[in-house]
Each structure stands twice: as C-alpha cells, then as structure tokens.
From TrEMBL:
The lineage of its organism: Bacteria, Pseudomonadati, Pseudomonadota, Alphaproteobacteria, Hyphomicrobiales. Coiled coil: none annotated. Residues 80-216 form the Phospholipase/carboxylesterase/thioesterase domain. This is Phospholipase/carboxylesterase. Gene3D superfamilies: alpha/beta hydrolase (3.40.50.1820). One of its GO terms (molecular function) is hydrolase activity. InterPro entries: AB_hydrolase_fold (IPR029058), PLipase/COase/thioEstase (IPR003140).
C-alpha cells in the first residue's frame, strides 16, 4: 500500500497525517480518525480491510494527554472540554477541505474509533458539508448542548452507522442512542447497533462495518 507521510511543514496542511492514494475507482475516500493514544497509522489496516482500493486520509490528533494523541481535550473520563471540541472540529474540518484540494479527492466517509468517532460525530453536527457519511465505532455524544446550526440539515440522507458495545465501561449506556436520535433529527440515515463486548472492537464490529462500507462507499 503506497503511502504519503506528511507533516505541516511538508505540505502546508496543519495536521501530521498519512495519505494513501486510491488504487480502485468509484470509491469514496476514507477519513480515518484514531482513538486516544493512537496515531495516523492506527486505522490504515482497518480502512484497507473495509474499503479495499479507497483513498485514505488519516490525520493525527493535535492534543496530547499524558503523551497520548487525541483530537480534543477532556476534563475527565467522559467529560469533554466542549469549547475545545468546537475549536478542534473547525480546525480538523478545515484540514480535510484543504487536503481534498491537495490530494484531489471527494468528500470522505469518516471511519472513527472512540475519540476519533467523537470528533467525527461533532464534525457531522457542526460542519456537515465536510463528510459524506460516518462509521462511528464506540461514539459518545460529543456536545451536550445543541450547538449545531441549520446547516445540519445538509445531513439529509447521509449514512451513519453507530456501533456501540453492550458492556462498554467508557461510553454511558444511553449516549449512543441519544447521538443516533440527534442525527436522525438532522435528516441522516442512521443505523445504531448494540453489539456484544466492551470498548474494544470484535468480529461483529468488523462484519457490520464491512457491510456499511460496501453499501455506502461507492460514489453515485
């Protein structure tokens, strides 16, 4: 898998990231967003497994929590710094739009795990035009107050899959359901599946995610 590894200095883009050019045609690119402690390499194998041949844009979160990269700050486990969430959403959304021009790619489908799923969810609520859909693995409600604007109506018809774990010790039990309801209120085509297991991913997640990408990753 050919990859371009870039820093802000090398490209003018403001996130360290990996870009994997497409090897197939007619596929939407994937925006791969890692969990806490991951980096821009973490989800590349998963993206390739779920959407073989698709281009992959994979940025590294710019926040460090005890040396672990994240996409936004949190005040404690499960309690987010919402002002920072909003600021980081706009910074990451601007990066994605700049990267689309640099790499000449279509609007991507987000593939996010944990913290990456949360920032993807927040982008869809605050900057819905940036993404073509979202595959959100172990997502929480990223913003407790409804801060999205009328632009969230542009989620109409966009596919969203939320996959949560029945015994997840990190994600509050009602959060994924509330997130799904919020997306539906914005017109998104939402599927929420509660799977066996905890915060880590299992075979059920992979099968569900693969089916989602097969259904929605093709352009047109």
């Amino acid at each position: 898998m050919s990859q371009t590894e870039s820093s802000a200095d090398q490209t003018g883009l403001d996130h360290i990231h990996r870009f994997v050019p497409a090897t197939g045609s007619g596929l939407r690119p994937i925006l791969a967003l890692h969990g806490t402690g991951g980096d821009e390499t973490d989800l590349l194998p998963l993206a390739e497994m779920l959407a073989p041949g698709a281009a992959v844009l994979s940025p590294r979160g710019k926040v460090s929590e005890g040396g672990m990269p994240r996409f936004f700050r949190r005040l404690s486990e499960g309690v987010f710094d919402e002002a920072d969430v909003v600021a980081k959403v706009h910074a990451l959304a601007d990066f994605v739009e700049a990267a689309r021009k640099t790499y000449d790619i279509e609007a991507p489908i987000a593939l996010g795990f944990s913290n990456g799923a949360n920032i993807a969810a927040a982008i869809m609520l605050l900057r819905p035009e940036v993404l073509a859909g979202g595959l959100l693995l172990r997502a929480m409600v990223p913003l407790q107050e409804k801060q999205e604007t009328e632009r969230a109506e542009s989620l109409a018809g966009k596919p969203v899959l939320i996959a949560s774990g029945a015994m997840d010790p990190i994600v509050p039990v009602d959060d994924p359901t509330r997130l799904a309801e919020r997306f539906r209120a914005c017109g998104a085509d939402v599927t929420h599946e509660i799977l066996p297991g905890g915060h880590g991913l299992g075979q059920s997640d992979l099968g569900l995610a693969k089916a989602f990408m097969e259904a929605h990753a093709r352009i047109g």
